Amino acid sequence: MNLSTPHFCVIKLPSSANKSMIKFFNDKGFWQNVVKLSFPVMLQNLLTGSFTLADTLLVSSLGTVSLSSVGMAGQWSWLMNMIIIGFCSGTTLFVSQYWGIKDMKKIRHISGISILFAFGISLTFTIVSVALPNLVVRMFNSNQDVISTGSEYLSVVAFSYIPIAMTNILAAILRSVENVKLPMYASLLTTVLNIFLDYAMIFGKFGFSKMGVRGAALATVISAWAGLAVIVVISIIRKNVLVKKSKEIFQFTGKEVVYYVKKSAPVVLNEGMWGLGTFVYNIIFGNMGYEYFSALTIVRSFENIAFVMFIGICSASSVMLGKSIGRGMINRGLVDSKRFMVIVPTLAVIVATLIVVFRAQLVSIFNMGSNISDLAINTAQTLMAIYAVAFPFRMLPYLEIVSVFRSGGDTVTGAKYELSCLWLMSIPATLIAVHVFKAPFAAAFAVMYIFEDIPKNVLCLKFYKSMKWIKPVTKEGRQALDEYLRKEKKNVR
């Protein structure tokens, strides 16, 4: 079936979407699913964000150089995580739709393929980090103290990459079959253990030696492996989808690998190139001065917390839309997608307002010991305000690309929009602002958002309204879409 045929462009939302707003959202089943699927993911990501926030808070007590160094080293793992998230998104697309028709054999095969890819990527990043830590940190800043401290941290924290990647991919599989609690429990253990070990190993408490940034790295490694162990052990005890008939996991065919790569490659490219773009931004900002990068590290820590609610909602949206479309319930998927398109920007405005109002108090938490420079603190407050203004404009295309388009089966268009706005508009504009116009740090930070988010919003909204993103991977979904298109064509005539 060719989804690019002209009649596909005239699809309209069902008549129920044109009813009053109150009646439109008066769907008990919808809200039950949103809460059931999103709350555990929100809590899991809140714990993950707290993990990062605790690291940053405790390391900030060691001074501006340490905070900046750890932040720079952390950007390398950020790049790896974005690539892994790409595989997680591709896996969610397949597993959620196969879950809709309860094809467990296909789910296990997709799980095996995604696990192997995640392991390969994380192993590569581990090897580079251990062998060339100086080279990685040097990309961000040439200050010898920063390079030395960052390399010490990176060479140890690299051993957390494999368990982090494995945990992420297993969590994506579990969430796609509506098992959202186990990943949450693993995150709870990881976060609590990491905070305890951070405090103990950085400052030499509870019988541990005082290790500074090396202790922070070692705490991350231990807690990451513990989180993976929780998922594996509980999965074995409960015999869930990861364990039941586990021999089938690696019995996938070459044809299945090709199909997985074909569908997942645009998502992986999207997330990987977006992560690389963020990596480039941080190289630009890092070379403007390590005090400025300390400010950026503080903002990134709060960014993870602000993002928590939306990760949960978009995760719920992905499963709900993918499951509906995989089952052939096209009408239901359309209505639910429009509901999420109202919910996300509304909540984003509320969160942005809170960030603006409390930004000074939030940033001051990092300077309780007065070890961070005034320049870093003042810059962080300014960046928080800029981030808050940009926040709603970032969340809507995030929902569309990561959740709606991908769960509907279109993994290409969102990647095309996101990468073109990033690499052809925002990064060149930021480079020109810094190196040609010599813009101050805060102005360069604002330029980054303006040239990426505004054009992306326009492109994504236009594509969403066209409904061309509905491309089921299941036979049932394709048949239902054909029937839906025939009915819509008759209605138009």
Q: Which spans have pLDDT < 50 for at least 5 consecutive residues?
A: 1-11
The pLDDT mean sits at 87
Straight-line distance between termini: 21 Å
Taken in chain order, the helices and strands follow as HHHHHHHHHHHHHHHH
Largest sheet: none
What is the percentage of strand-forming residues?
under 5%
Q: Nearest-angstrom radius of gyration? A: 23 Å
**Morphology:** globular
Number-wise, the strands total 0
Describe this structure in words.
- The chain is mostly helical and 493 residues long.
- It is 80% helix and 0% strand.
- The chain has 16 helices and no strands.
- Helix 8 (181-203) runs antiparallel to helix 9 (213-238), helix 13 packs antiparallel against helix 14 (413-435) and helix 14 (413-435) packs antiparallel against helix 15.
- The relative contact order is 0.14.
Q: What distinguishing features does this structure have?
A:
80% helix; 493 residues; 0% strand; disordered N terminus; 16 helices; mainly alpha; single chain
